Amino acid sequence: MNLTTRPSMKKMSDKDTIMVTPIPNSLAEMKKLIDQHRTEWLQDYYTFLSFPSISSEPQFKESMQACADWIMNYLKALRFSVELWPTNEHPVIFASNLEAGPDKPTLLIYNHYDVQPVDPLNEWLSDPFNPTLREGEVYARGAQDNKGQCFYVLQALKFYIDQHGKLPLNVKLCIEGEEEMGSAGLSRLLAAKKVPLQSDYVAIVDLGLRDAQIPAVTLGIRGILTMEVEVQGSHTDLHSGSHGGIVINPIHALVSMLASLRDAKGKITVPGFYDNVEEMSLEERSLVSFHLDLADYQNVTGAYPGGGEKDRTALERAWVRPTLEINGIHGGYTGKGFKTVIPAKAFAKLSCRLVPNQNPETIAKLIENHLKEVAPQGIQVRVNIHQGQGKAVRVSSQAQVVKSFSTAFQEVFGVPCEFIFEGASIPIVPELAAACSGEVILLGLGLTTDQIHAPNEHFGVDRLEKGMLIIARAIELLAEHPPKAPLSNN
Questions:
Q1: Each residue's pLDDT tens digit, 82-140
Q2: CA quadruple 237, 243, 247, 248: dihedral, nearest 10
Q3: What is the Cα–Cα distance from 286 to 282, expressed in whole angstroms?
Q4: Among candidate residues 53, 258, 40, the one with its CA nearest the CA of residue 155
Q5: Does the bond joining 196 to the residue before it have cis omega, within 30 degrees of 0?
Q6: Of 385, 400, 418, which residue is a domain's last?
Q7: How many helices and strands in the chain, by DSSP H and E?
Q8: Total-model pTM
Q9: Does 238 fall in a domain?
Q10: For residue 213, how many other CB atoms are within 10 A of its CB?
Protein backbone atom coordinates (compact mmCIF):
# COMPACT_ATOMS: atom_id res chain seq x y z
CA MET A 1 0.00 0.00 0.00
CA ASN A 2 1.41 3.37 -0.95
CA LEU A 3 0.39 6.61 0.68
CA THR A 4 3.52 8.67 0.22
CA THR A 5 6.05 5.99 0.93
CA ARG A 6 6.19 2.28 0.22
CA PRO A 7 6.67 -0.74 2.44
CA SER A 8 10.11 -2.26 2.16
CA MET A 9 10.47 -5.10 -0.33
CA LYS A 10 11.85 -8.49 0.57
CA LYS A 11 15.57 -8.68 0.02
CA MET A 12 16.74 -11.22 -2.51
CA SER A 13 19.81 -13.39 -2.25
CA ASP A 14 22.43 -13.28 -4.99
CA LYS A 15 21.01 -16.35 -6.63
CA ASP A 16 17.56 -14.75 -6.69
CA THR A 17 18.73 -11.47 -8.23
CA ILE A 18 16.80 -10.65 -11.39
CA MET A 19 18.83 -9.17 -14.21
CA VAL A 20 16.96 -6.22 -15.66
CA THR A 21 16.58 -6.58 -19.42
CA PRO A 22 17.41 -3.48 -21.50
CA ILE A 23 14.37 -1.89 -23.11
CA PRO A 24 13.59 -3.68 -26.42
CA ASN A 25 14.03 -1.80 -29.68
CA SER A 26 10.28 -1.86 -30.34
CA LEU A 27 9.66 0.05 -27.11
CA ALA A 28 12.43 2.52 -27.85
CA GLU A 29 10.76 3.27 -31.16
CA MET A 30 7.37 3.63 -29.50
CA LYS A 31 8.86 5.98 -26.93
CA LYS A 32 9.91 8.20 -29.84
CA LEU A 33 6.33 8.18 -31.14
CA ILE A 34 5.01 9.09 -27.71
CA ASP A 35 7.42 12.02 -27.48
CA GLN A 36 6.81 13.22 -31.04
CA HIS A 37 3.01 13.18 -30.70
CA ARG A 38 2.71 14.32 -27.09
CA THR A 39 0.60 17.40 -27.92
CA GLU A 40 -1.90 15.37 -29.96
CA TRP A 41 -2.41 12.51 -27.51
CA LEU A 42 -2.61 14.80 -24.51
CA GLN A 43 -5.35 16.74 -26.29
CA ASP A 44 -7.21 13.47 -26.94
CA TYR A 45 -6.86 12.61 -23.26
CA TYR A 46 -8.22 16.01 -22.24
CA THR A 47 -11.16 15.58 -24.62
CA PHE A 48 -11.95 12.18 -23.08
CA LEU A 49 -11.84 13.69 -19.59
CA SER A 50 -14.06 16.64 -20.55
CA PHE A 51 -17.19 14.45 -20.82
CA PRO A 52 -19.06 14.55 -17.48
CA SER A 53 -19.80 10.83 -17.66
CA ILE A 54 -21.30 10.45 -14.18
CA SER A 55 -23.29 7.25 -14.43
CA SER A 56 -25.21 7.54 -11.16
CA GLU A 57 -26.85 10.91 -11.92
CA PRO A 58 -29.65 10.87 -14.55
CA GLN A 59 -28.96 14.41 -15.78
CA PHE A 60 -25.67 13.19 -17.29
CA LYS A 61 -27.21 10.50 -19.51
CA GLU A 62 -26.54 12.48 -22.71
CA SER A 63 -22.93 13.06 -21.62
CA MET A 64 -22.54 9.35 -21.01
CA GLN A 65 -23.71 8.63 -24.55
CA ALA A 66 -21.44 11.34 -26.00
CA CYS A 67 -18.47 9.82 -24.18
CA ALA A 68 -19.33 6.36 -25.49
CA ASP A 69 -19.62 7.77 -29.03
CA TRP A 70 -16.17 9.38 -28.70
CA ILE A 71 -14.62 6.03 -27.71
CA MET A 72 -16.41 4.25 -30.54
CA ASN A 73 -15.11 6.71 -33.15
CA TYR A 74 -11.60 6.46 -31.71
CA LEU A 75 -11.66 2.67 -32.05
CA LYS A 76 -13.22 2.65 -35.51
CA ALA A 77 -10.26 4.71 -36.70
CA LEU A 78 -8.06 1.82 -35.51
CA ARG A 79 -10.02 -0.68 -37.63
CA PHE A 80 -11.86 -2.13 -34.65
CA SER A 81 -15.31 -3.57 -35.16
CA VAL A 82 -17.40 -1.74 -32.55
CA GLU A 83 -20.78 -2.53 -31.00
CA LEU A 84 -22.87 -0.81 -28.35
CA TRP A 85 -24.52 -3.32 -26.05
CA PRO A 86 -27.55 -1.54 -24.57
CA THR A 87 -28.43 -1.83 -20.88
CA ASN A 88 -31.15 -0.27 -18.73
CA GLU A 89 -28.79 2.63 -17.96
CA HIS A 90 -25.61 3.15 -19.99
CA PRO A 91 -24.27 1.01 -22.85
CA VAL A 92 -21.31 -1.33 -22.85
CA ILE A 93 -18.79 -0.74 -25.64
CA PHE A 94 -17.56 -4.01 -27.14
CA ALA A 95 -14.85 -3.73 -29.78
CA SER A 96 -12.61 -6.23 -31.51
CA ASN A 97 -9.67 -6.20 -33.89
CA LEU A 98 -9.08 -9.76 -35.09
CA GLU A 99 -6.67 -9.01 -37.92
CA ALA A 100 -3.96 -11.18 -36.34
CA GLY A 101 -6.04 -14.23 -37.26
CA PRO A 102 -6.81 -17.65 -35.74
CA ASP A 103 -3.16 -18.63 -35.28
CA LYS A 104 -2.67 -15.90 -32.70
CA PRO A 105 -4.16 -15.68 -29.19
CA THR A 106 -6.87 -13.24 -28.12
CA LEU A 107 -6.58 -10.71 -25.30
CA LEU A 108 -9.66 -9.03 -23.83
CA ILE A 109 -9.08 -5.79 -21.93
CA TYR A 110 -11.62 -4.39 -19.45
CA ASN A 111 -12.03 -0.70 -18.58
CA HIS A 112 -14.92 1.64 -17.75
CA TYR A 113 -15.78 5.11 -18.98
CA ASP A 114 -18.11 6.22 -16.19
CA VAL A 115 -16.86 8.30 -13.28
CA GLN A 116 -17.87 9.25 -9.75
CA PRO A 117 -19.83 12.42 -8.88
CA VAL A 118 -17.70 15.50 -8.16
CA ASP A 119 -19.18 16.64 -4.83
CA PRO A 120 -18.06 18.61 -2.88
CA LEU A 121 -17.40 20.86 -5.87
CA ASN A 122 -16.05 23.75 -3.76
CA GLU A 123 -13.04 21.65 -2.74
CA TRP A 124 -11.77 21.31 -6.32
CA LEU A 125 -8.90 23.62 -7.23
CA SER A 126 -10.00 23.56 -10.89
CA ASP A 127 -13.05 22.55 -12.91
CA PRO A 128 -13.31 18.72 -12.66
CA PHE A 129 -14.27 18.48 -16.35
CA ASN A 130 -11.77 21.02 -17.64
CA PRO A 131 -8.49 19.04 -17.31
CA THR A 132 -5.62 21.00 -15.82
CA LEU A 133 -1.93 20.07 -15.90
CA ARG A 134 0.00 20.94 -12.74
CA GLU A 135 3.52 19.71 -12.00
CA GLY A 136 3.23 16.71 -14.31
CA GLU A 137 -0.19 15.62 -13.01
CA VAL A 138 -3.48 16.00 -14.87
CA TYR A 139 -6.32 17.05 -12.56
CA ALA A 140 -9.87 16.05 -13.56
CA ARG A 141 -12.61 13.68 -12.53
CA GLY A 142 -11.72 10.32 -14.05
CA ALA A 143 -8.09 11.34 -14.62
CA GLN A 144 -7.11 8.01 -13.11
CA ASP A 145 -10.33 6.08 -12.37
CA ASN A 146 -10.74 4.86 -15.00
CA LYS A 147 -10.39 7.15 -17.99
CA GLY A 148 -6.65 7.56 -17.51
CA GLN A 149 -6.09 3.82 -17.43
CA CYS A 150 -8.51 3.30 -20.31
CA PHE A 151 -6.79 5.99 -22.37
CA TYR A 152 -3.28 4.56 -22.18
CA VAL A 153 -4.74 1.25 -23.40
CA LEU A 154 -6.37 2.94 -26.40
CA GLN A 155 -3.30 5.02 -27.17
CA ALA A 156 -0.97 2.00 -26.91
CA LEU A 157 -3.06 0.16 -29.48
CA LYS A 158 -3.01 3.21 -31.76
CA PHE A 159 0.75 3.65 -31.55
CA TYR A 160 1.35 -0.06 -32.10
CA ILE A 161 -0.75 -0.03 -35.27
CA ASP A 162 0.97 3.17 -36.44
CA GLN A 163 4.35 1.54 -35.87
CA HIS A 164 3.72 -2.00 -37.15
CA GLY A 165 0.67 -1.81 -39.41
CA LYS A 166 -1.45 -4.14 -37.28
CA LEU A 167 -1.66 -5.64 -33.79
CA PRO A 168 0.44 -8.76 -33.02
CA LEU A 169 -2.52 -10.66 -31.56
CA ASN A 170 -6.29 -10.40 -31.54
CA VAL A 171 -7.64 -7.75 -29.16
CA LYS A 172 -11.12 -7.35 -27.71
CA LEU A 173 -12.20 -4.44 -25.52
CA CYS A 174 -15.03 -4.40 -23.01
CA ILE A 175 -15.53 -0.82 -21.78
CA GLU A 176 -18.60 -0.41 -19.59
CA GLY A 177 -20.50 2.62 -18.37
CA GLU A 178 -21.88 1.40 -15.05
CA GLU A 179 -18.89 0.27 -12.99
CA GLU A 180 -19.41 3.05 -10.46
CA MET A 181 -23.01 1.83 -10.07
CA GLY A 182 -22.18 -1.83 -9.55
CA SER A 183 -22.05 -3.09 -13.18
CA ALA A 184 -25.63 -4.39 -13.15
CA GLY A 185 -26.06 -3.86 -16.90
CA LEU A 186 -22.93 -5.74 -17.91
CA SER A 187 -23.75 -8.48 -15.42
CA ARG A 188 -27.11 -9.10 -17.07
CA LEU A 189 -25.51 -9.23 -20.53
CA LEU A 190 -22.77 -11.76 -19.82
CA ALA A 191 -24.78 -14.96 -20.22
CA ALA A 192 -25.92 -13.92 -23.72
CA LYS A 193 -22.51 -12.61 -24.76
CA LYS A 194 -20.23 -15.50 -23.84
CA VAL A 195 -19.34 -16.31 -27.45
CA PRO A 196 -18.02 -12.88 -28.49
CA LEU A 197 -16.29 -12.50 -25.11
CA GLN A 198 -14.28 -15.73 -25.46
CA SER A 199 -10.59 -14.94 -25.04
CA ASP A 200 -7.33 -16.62 -24.12
CA TYR A 201 -6.38 -13.83 -21.74
CA VAL A 202 -8.33 -11.19 -19.78
CA ALA A 203 -6.67 -8.00 -18.47
CA ILE A 204 -8.54 -5.96 -15.88
CA VAL A 205 -6.88 -2.54 -16.14
CA ASP A 206 -8.37 -0.79 -13.12
CA LEU A 207 -5.86 -1.28 -10.29
CA GLY A 208 -2.60 0.18 -9.07
CA LEU A 209 0.85 0.13 -7.52
CA ARG A 210 2.24 0.43 -4.02
CA ASP A 211 4.89 2.85 -5.25
CA ALA A 212 5.20 4.94 -8.39
CA GLN A 213 8.72 3.60 -9.02
CA ILE A 214 8.05 -0.12 -8.40
CA PRO A 215 6.05 -2.12 -10.98
CA ALA A 216 3.48 -4.54 -9.61
CA VAL A 217 0.94 -7.11 -10.69
CA THR A 218 -2.04 -7.75 -8.42
CA LEU A 219 -2.66 -11.39 -7.44
CA GLY A 220 -6.05 -10.88 -5.85
CA ILE A 221 -8.89 -8.53 -4.99
CA ARG A 222 -11.48 -8.96 -2.28
CA GLY A 223 -15.19 -9.45 -2.81
CA ILE A 224 -17.81 -7.02 -1.55
CA LEU A 225 -21.18 -7.01 0.13
CA THR A 226 -23.16 -3.91 1.18
CA MET A 227 -26.37 -3.61 3.16
CA GLU A 228 -28.57 -1.17 5.02
CA VAL A 229 -30.01 -1.98 8.43
CA GLU A 230 -33.18 -0.35 9.77
CA VAL A 231 -34.47 -0.80 13.30
CA GLN A 232 -37.85 0.43 14.53
CA GLY A 233 -39.22 0.70 18.03
CA SER A 234 -42.46 2.72 17.71
CA HIS A 235 -44.99 4.01 15.21
CA THR A 236 -43.62 7.55 15.42
CA ASP A 237 -41.06 9.64 17.30
CA LEU A 238 -41.88 9.87 21.02
CA HIS A 239 -41.39 12.66 23.58
CA SER A 240 -38.36 11.76 25.69
CA GLY A 241 -39.93 13.24 28.81
CA SER A 242 -43.16 11.29 28.53
CA HIS A 243 -41.72 8.01 27.27
CA GLY A 244 -38.06 8.00 28.31
CA GLY A 245 -37.39 5.15 30.71
CA ILE A 246 -40.33 3.14 29.39
CA VAL A 247 -39.48 2.37 25.77
CA ILE A 248 -36.33 1.02 24.13
CA ASN A 249 -34.53 3.73 22.18
CA PRO A 250 -33.87 2.38 18.65
CA ILE A 251 -30.51 4.14 18.52
CA HIS A 252 -29.43 2.45 21.76
CA ALA A 253 -30.64 -0.85 20.34
CA LEU A 254 -28.83 -0.35 17.04
CA VAL A 255 -25.46 0.60 18.52
CA SER A 256 -25.65 -2.38 20.86
CA MET A 257 -26.44 -4.68 17.94
CA LEU A 258 -23.57 -3.25 15.90
CA ALA A 259 -21.14 -3.55 18.81
CA SER A 260 -21.94 -7.27 18.95
CA LEU A 261 -20.47 -7.80 15.48
CA ARG A 262 -16.87 -7.83 16.80
CA ASP A 263 -15.04 -8.90 19.91
CA ALA A 264 -12.24 -7.11 21.74
CA LYS A 265 -9.61 -8.81 19.56
CA GLY A 266 -11.15 -7.55 16.34
CA LYS A 267 -12.65 -10.89 15.34
CA ILE A 268 -16.03 -10.82 13.63
CA THR A 269 -18.47 -12.64 15.90
CA VAL A 270 -21.22 -13.47 13.38
CA PRO A 271 -21.66 -17.26 13.64
CA GLY A 272 -20.34 -18.98 10.50
CA PHE A 273 -18.63 -15.86 9.10
CA TYR A 274 -15.18 -17.51 8.90
CA ASP A 275 -16.37 -21.05 8.10
CA ASN A 276 -15.05 -21.19 4.52
CA VAL A 277 -12.07 -18.85 4.90
CA GLU A 278 -8.82 -20.59 3.93
CA GLU A 279 -5.36 -19.54 5.06
CA MET A 280 -2.89 -18.53 2.37
CA SER A 281 -0.43 -21.23 1.39
CA LEU A 282 3.26 -20.85 2.20
CA GLU A 283 3.91 -20.56 -1.55
CA GLU A 284 1.46 -17.66 -1.86
CA ARG A 285 2.99 -15.92 1.15
CA SER A 286 6.47 -16.28 -0.30
CA LEU A 287 5.48 -14.19 -3.33
CA VAL A 288 4.35 -11.08 -1.44
CA SER A 289 5.74 -8.76 1.22
CA PHE A 290 3.18 -7.87 3.87
CA HIS A 291 5.39 -5.29 5.53
CA LEU A 292 3.92 -1.82 6.11
CA ASP A 293 5.63 1.03 7.92
CA LEU A 294 2.96 1.71 10.52
CA ALA A 295 4.47 5.00 11.66
CA ASP A 296 4.41 6.32 8.09
CA TYR A 297 0.87 5.06 7.65
CA GLN A 298 -0.30 6.89 10.75
CA ASN A 299 1.59 10.03 9.80
CA VAL A 300 -0.02 10.20 6.35
CA THR A 301 -3.57 9.13 7.24
CA GLY A 302 -3.81 10.51 10.76
CA ALA A 303 -5.31 7.15 11.75
CA TYR A 304 -3.85 4.67 14.22
CA PRO A 305 -3.58 1.27 12.42
CA GLY A 306 -5.21 -0.72 15.24
CA GLY A 307 -8.37 -2.01 13.59
CA GLY A 308 -9.27 -5.53 12.56
CA GLU A 309 -7.90 -8.83 13.83
CA LYS A 310 -5.15 -8.17 16.37
CA ASP A 311 -3.26 -11.35 15.51
CA ARG A 312 -2.77 -10.36 11.85
CA THR A 313 -0.42 -7.85 10.24
CA ALA A 314 -1.88 -4.62 8.87
CA LEU A 315 -1.54 -5.59 5.22
CA GLU A 316 -2.93 -9.07 5.85
CA ARG A 317 -5.98 -7.39 7.33
CA ALA A 318 -6.23 -4.98 4.38
CA TRP A 319 -5.52 -7.46 1.59
CA VAL A 320 -6.39 -11.08 2.37
CA ARG A 321 -8.68 -11.16 5.42
CA PRO A 322 -12.43 -10.50 5.45
CA THR A 323 -13.81 -7.39 7.12
CA LEU A 324 -17.11 -6.01 8.33
CA GLU A 325 -17.29 -2.22 8.57
CA ILE A 326 -19.94 0.31 9.63
CA ASN A 327 -20.02 2.93 6.86
CA GLY A 328 -22.69 5.18 8.29
CA ILE A 329 -25.23 5.48 11.10
CA HIS A 330 -28.05 7.93 11.74
CA GLY A 331 -31.32 8.39 13.55
CA GLY A 332 -33.29 10.93 15.54
CA TYR A 333 -32.72 14.69 15.42
CA THR A 334 -29.33 15.92 14.19
CA GLY A 335 -30.07 19.54 13.33
CA LYS A 336 -29.08 22.65 15.26
CA GLY A 337 -30.30 22.96 18.80
CA PHE A 338 -32.29 20.21 20.47
CA LYS A 339 -35.38 18.22 19.76
CA THR A 340 -35.88 15.92 22.72
CA VAL A 341 -37.36 12.89 21.03
CA ILE A 342 -36.90 9.16 21.16
CA PRO A 343 -36.75 8.36 17.44
CA ALA A 344 -39.01 5.75 15.95
CA LYS A 345 -36.22 4.44 13.72
CA ALA A 346 -32.44 4.24 13.41
CA PHE A 347 -30.33 3.24 10.41
CA ALA A 348 -26.88 1.94 9.59
CA LYS A 349 -24.98 1.09 6.43
CA LEU A 350 -22.61 -1.89 6.56
CA SER A 351 -20.11 -3.35 4.13
CA CYS A 352 -18.01 -6.50 4.04
CA ARG A 353 -14.85 -7.20 2.10
CA LEU A 354 -14.76 -10.91 1.38
CA VAL A 355 -12.06 -13.44 0.54
CA PRO A 356 -12.10 -16.56 -1.66
CA ASN A 357 -14.75 -19.16 -0.75
CA GLN A 358 -17.00 -16.59 0.93
CA ASN A 359 -20.34 -16.25 -0.87
CA PRO A 360 -21.83 -12.74 -0.55
CA GLU A 361 -25.42 -14.01 -0.33
CA THR A 362 -24.51 -16.52 2.38
CA ILE A 363 -22.60 -13.95 4.42
CA ALA A 364 -25.45 -11.45 4.09
CA LYS A 365 -27.91 -13.96 5.50
CA LEU A 366 -25.59 -14.80 8.39
CA ILE A 367 -25.30 -11.11 9.32
CA GLU A 368 -29.06 -10.56 9.02
CA ASN A 369 -29.77 -13.58 11.24
CA HIS A 370 -27.25 -12.41 13.84
CA LEU A 371 -28.68 -8.88 14.01
CA LYS A 372 -32.21 -10.21 14.45
CA GLU A 373 -31.00 -12.66 17.09
CA VAL A 374 -29.34 -9.96 19.24
CA ALA A 375 -32.01 -7.28 18.76
CA PRO A 376 -33.85 -6.37 22.00
CA GLN A 377 -37.42 -7.60 22.35
CA GLY A 378 -39.84 -5.23 20.66
CA ILE A 379 -37.32 -3.90 18.13
CA GLN A 380 -38.13 -4.67 14.52
CA VAL A 381 -35.15 -5.29 12.22
CA ARG A 382 -35.14 -4.93 8.44
CA VAL A 383 -32.04 -5.61 6.31
CA ASN A 384 -31.77 -4.48 2.69
CA ILE A 385 -29.00 -6.17 0.69
CA HIS A 386 -27.73 -3.87 -2.06
CA GLN A 387 -27.01 -4.83 -5.66
CA GLY A 388 -23.42 -4.82 -6.86
CA GLN A 389 -22.09 -7.52 -4.58
CA GLY A 390 -19.23 -9.63 -5.90
CA LYS A 391 -16.91 -12.48 -4.99
CA ALA A 392 -13.18 -12.31 -4.39
CA VAL A 393 -10.73 -13.08 -7.19
CA ARG A 394 -7.29 -14.69 -7.03
CA VAL A 395 -4.83 -14.91 -9.91
CA SER A 396 -2.07 -17.46 -10.44
CA SER A 397 1.46 -16.06 -10.59
CA GLN A 398 2.24 -18.89 -13.02
CA ALA A 399 -0.38 -17.89 -15.59
CA GLN A 400 1.15 -16.95 -18.93
CA VAL A 401 -0.65 -13.61 -18.98
CA VAL A 402 0.84 -12.75 -15.59
CA LYS A 403 4.33 -13.74 -16.72
CA SER A 404 4.09 -11.68 -19.91
CA PHE A 405 2.77 -8.55 -18.22
CA SER A 406 5.31 -8.91 -15.40
CA THR A 407 8.09 -8.96 -17.99
CA ALA A 408 6.61 -5.92 -19.72
CA PHE A 409 6.40 -4.05 -16.41
CA GLN A 410 10.01 -4.92 -15.61
CA GLU A 411 11.31 -3.82 -18.99
CA VAL A 412 9.46 -0.49 -18.87
CA PHE A 413 10.30 0.38 -15.24
CA GLY A 414 13.80 -1.05 -15.36
CA VAL A 415 13.43 -2.86 -12.01
CA PRO A 416 11.90 -6.22 -10.99
CA CYS A 417 8.11 -6.49 -10.87
CA GLU A 418 6.58 -7.32 -7.48
CA PHE A 419 3.33 -9.09 -6.61
CA ILE A 420 0.74 -7.42 -4.41
CA PHE A 421 -2.87 -7.84 -3.36
CA GLU A 422 -5.64 -5.25 -3.40
CA GLY A 423 -8.14 -4.89 -0.57
CA ALA A 424 -10.75 -3.13 -2.70
CA SER A 425 -13.23 -4.82 -5.01
CA ILE A 426 -14.38 -4.80 -8.64
CA PRO A 427 -17.64 -6.78 -8.43
CA ILE A 428 -17.93 -7.60 -12.14
CA VAL A 429 -14.50 -9.27 -12.41
CA PRO A 430 -15.39 -12.84 -11.35
CA GLU A 431 -18.46 -12.88 -13.62
CA LEU A 432 -16.56 -11.41 -16.57
CA ALA A 433 -13.64 -13.80 -16.10
CA ALA A 434 -16.03 -16.78 -16.10
CA ALA A 435 -17.77 -15.54 -19.25
CA CYS A 436 -14.47 -15.00 -21.11
CA SER A 437 -12.93 -18.33 -19.99
CA GLY A 438 -9.37 -16.99 -20.22
CA GLU A 439 -6.46 -16.49 -17.85
CA VAL A 440 -6.93 -13.32 -15.82
CA ILE A 441 -4.53 -10.58 -14.81
CA LEU A 442 -5.26 -7.63 -12.51
CA LEU A 443 -3.15 -4.56 -13.16
CA GLY A 444 -2.97 -0.81 -13.34
CA LEU A 445 -0.87 2.24 -12.55
CA GLY A 446 -3.02 3.95 -9.95
CA LEU A 447 -1.68 5.21 -6.64
CA THR A 448 -3.55 5.70 -3.38
CA THR A 449 -2.51 9.36 -3.55
CA ASP A 450 -4.45 9.94 -6.82
CA GLN A 451 -7.53 10.99 -4.84
CA ILE A 452 -9.96 8.93 -6.88
CA HIS A 453 -13.61 9.42 -5.81
CA ALA A 454 -12.50 12.65 -4.08
CA PRO A 455 -11.94 16.28 -5.10
CA ASN A 456 -8.78 16.96 -7.13
CA GLU A 457 -8.39 13.50 -8.62
CA HIS A 458 -5.21 13.37 -10.67
CA PHE A 459 -2.95 11.10 -12.76
CA GLY A 460 0.66 11.51 -13.80
CA VAL A 461 1.61 12.04 -17.43
CA ASP A 462 4.64 9.81 -16.80
CA ARG A 463 2.31 6.98 -15.83
CA LEU A 464 0.25 7.48 -18.99
CA GLU A 465 3.45 7.01 -20.99
CA LYS A 466 4.49 3.94 -19.02
CA GLY A 467 1.02 2.48 -19.46
CA MET A 468 1.26 2.81 -23.23
CA LEU A 469 4.64 1.07 -23.25
CA ILE A 470 3.51 -1.73 -20.92
CA ILE A 471 0.42 -2.54 -22.97
CA ALA A 472 2.40 -2.46 -26.22
CA ARG A 473 5.14 -4.74 -24.90
CA ALA A 474 2.71 -7.15 -23.20
CA ILE A 475 0.74 -7.77 -26.39
CA GLU A 476 4.02 -8.52 -28.19
CA LEU A 477 4.99 -11.06 -25.55
CA LEU A 478 1.55 -12.70 -25.44
CA ALA A 479 1.54 -12.99 -29.22
CA GLU A 480 4.45 -15.43 -28.97
CA HIS A 481 2.16 -18.11 -27.50
CA PRO A 482 -0.39 -20.21 -29.40
CA PRO A 483 -4.12 -19.64 -28.86
CA LYS A 484 -5.89 -21.88 -26.36
CA ALA A 485 -9.34 -21.62 -27.90
CA PRO A 486 -10.85 -21.03 -31.37
CA LEU A 487 -11.15 -17.40 -32.42
CA SER A 488 -14.72 -16.12 -32.09
CA ASN A 489 -16.48 -12.77 -32.35
CA ASN A 490 -20.17 -13.61 -32.75
A1: 999 999 999 999 999 999 999 999 999 999 999 999 999 999 999 999 999 999 999 99
A2: 60
A3: 6
A4: 40
A5: no
A6: 385
A7: 15, 18
A8: 0.89
A9: yes
A10: 11
